[in-house]
Design goal:
CATH class of the largest domain: Mainly Beta
Oligomer: single chain
CATH topology of the largest domain: Jelly Rolls
Number of helices: 1
Shape: elongated
Number of strands: 46
Structural class: mainly beta
Largest sheet: 7 strands, antiparallel
Radius of gyration: 43 Å
Number of domains: 5
Strand order of the largest sheet: 4-7-16-9-10-11-12
Mean pLDDT: 92
CATH architecture of the largest domain: Sandwich
Low-confidence stretches: none
Length: 513
């Protein structure tokens, strides 16, 4: 692309500030027209007959050997008193000025001192080349060096170039051919001013700190979401323009349109505007329960739907948060998922109003109430279905009644947190492709229990318990270290190690069930 805006495409949020710059690397030639010149698509300059015209090259030579070359054609020739001036000038330093008349060429320095006068009848096909290298300035005609000007000091970069044409012209449709640039020519946003204008379509998308005659502009996005076209046009010429895309994103919440939270659960709600350069969004509750602290939402305790919204300006985005009806089952204030035979459990729920309870087995202390107790059946191996309802919401929980292992393992305890994972590893870069086989990516624990120096009575009871439950009956074991009730599957044979004192150590493994 001969001319481009950097960045070419960007997504912004309201009030974001972005710097855009214009870049053009030679070749292409970019002109700054000043008088009676039309810039064509091929970078040639159309002149007005019988009228002087001039133009300045927008790019400058940044460093090193730099030159500019013109090849005359029949429409570039002057006649009579007409002339064409080529001027290559250093930044506040030396210059080479080449004036081409119909039958002569005059070469001057920056102080208008004549360096050379060459007798030559300019014709179609003539090639004029001006070059700077260090402190040496040269003019060549048709590949032959005609003039060398060795300045006392080096030419300072960047170099600028200007061409002036003075009528009369030999052609009725005069023009200046596009030059060939040699060396490192580019737009220099620091040292060069521009003959350019930035515009945004539609204009409502944002504002510029300055949109005219600069190469670097600072843009501030507006509050209006949309896709906008950023255009820069040089010298008011449609043949010297570039476009970029600016997207001002609409406000959106970064989640599904509805989510479920547990009673009292705290979550941080996020929007795409969180990536903005300034804090934009205000959260509030439209209906329902719960509370906000900035963008952190605490769910209510009762079941129901809560609608919350994120607001910026005249934009808003909504999300529905559902708190389900839940049942809490505790023993001595510890929440449990399984019970032992004959155990008394406390049942509560987050529902309000008149709550009715039923149990498929065991005994409830009451059929209604905010809190009831449930005495499990005396037989292990049963699954009890507990149901609570207030007429609007219903929650049910299945509680297995399991035998408890009658002894506590010795310290130290050993367990692993695991997932069942399929792993495929590449041989070259050791990359991995994985698949977790556990439901919903949930981990489970694997335990290794050791019972040190136990007597023969415990040994017999433990052995009977293992015989009754291995391999496919779950059991309960209370783990004293964390103070939690574990529901486990037996996962190994039971091993014994007897000492001379008749004390026996036994071990087995179990996994979370």
């Amino acid at each position: 692309m001969p001319l481009e805006i950097i960045p070419q495409s960007i997504t912004l949020y309201p009030q974001d500030v972005q710097v855009f710059t214009v870049r053009a690397i030679a070749p292409p030639v970019l002109w700054k027209a000043t008088t009676d010149v039309v810039i064509e698509n091929d970078a040639s300059l159309t002149l007005t007959p019988a009228t002087p015209g001039n133009a300045t090259l927008l790019q400058g030579a940044i460093d090193g050997v730099a030159g500019i070359e013109f090849t005359f054609d029949s429409d570039m020739l002057v006649t009579s008193t007409g002339s064409i001036l080529f001027a290559l000038t250093g930044s506040g330093s030396h210059a080479l000025r080449v004036t081409v008349s119909p039958t002569s060429i005059v070469v001057k320095d920056e102080s208008a001192n004549t360096l050379d006068t060459i007798s030559h009848t300019t014709a179609s096909g003539d090639v004029f080349y001006i070059e700077v290298a260090g402190n040496m300035l040269r003019f060549s005609l048709n590949g032959i060096v005609e003039t060398e000007y060795e300045a006392l000091t080096s030419v300072r970069y960047p170099l600028r170039f200007r061409v002036d044409a003075t009528s009369p012209y030999a052609s009725a449709t005069p023009h200046i051919t596009a030059p060939r640039l040699v060396g490192n020519w580019a737009l220099d946003p620091i040292n060069f001013t521009g003959d350019n204008t930035f515009t945004l379509t539609p204009a409502s998308g944002g504002t510029f700190d300055d949109s005219t005659d600069i190469w670097i502009t600072t843009f501030t996005a507006s509050d209006q979401p949309g896709v906008y076209n950023l255009n820069v046009q040089i010298a008011s010429s449609s043949n010297q323009e570039a476009d970029a895309t600016v997207i001002v994103s609409p406000l959106s919440i970064l989640s599904e349109s509805s989510i479920e939270l547990q009673p009292g659960e705290v979550v941080t709600l996020k929007t795409n505007y969180d990536a903005a350069q300034t804090s934009l969004v205000t959260w509030s509750i439209v209906s329902g329960s719960g509370s906000f602290s900035a963008n952190q939402f605490t769910a209510g305790t009762a079941p129901g739907d809560t609608v919350v919204k994120a607001v910026y300006g005249n934009q808003e985005a909504r999300i529905t948060i559902t708190v389900p009806a839940v049942m809490t089952i505790t023993v001595s204030s510890e929440e449990v998922a399984a019970a032992t035979p004959g155990e008394v459990l406390t049942l509560t729920t987050n529902m309000t109003g008149t709550i009715n309870w039923t149990a498929s087995t065991g005994t409830l202390s009451a059929s209604s109430g905010a809190t009831v107790t449930w005495t499990t059946p005396s037989q292990a191996g049963l699954d009890a279905l507990i149901v609570a309802t207030n007429g609007t919401y219903t929650v049910s929980v299945t509680i297995p009644v399991l035998n408890a292992f009658p002894y506590r393992p010795s310290l130290t305890l050993k367990w692993e947190r695991k997932k069942t994972v399929l792993v495929s590893q590449s041989e070259d870069k050791r990359g991995r492709a994985t698949r977790v086989k556990n439901y919903d990516n949930t981990p489970f624990e694997s335990h290794e229990f050791t019972f040190l120096n136990r007597n023969l009575a415990e040994l017999s009871a433990a052995q009977d318990f293992w015989d009754a439950h291995y391999p496919n009956k779950r059991f309960i074991l209370t783990e004293a270290h964390r103070g939690i009730r574990l529901v486990l599957w037996p996962d190994s044979d039971i091993g014994f190690d007897a000492s001379a004192t008749c004390a026996t150590t036994y071990t087995f493994r179990a996994i979370e069930g």
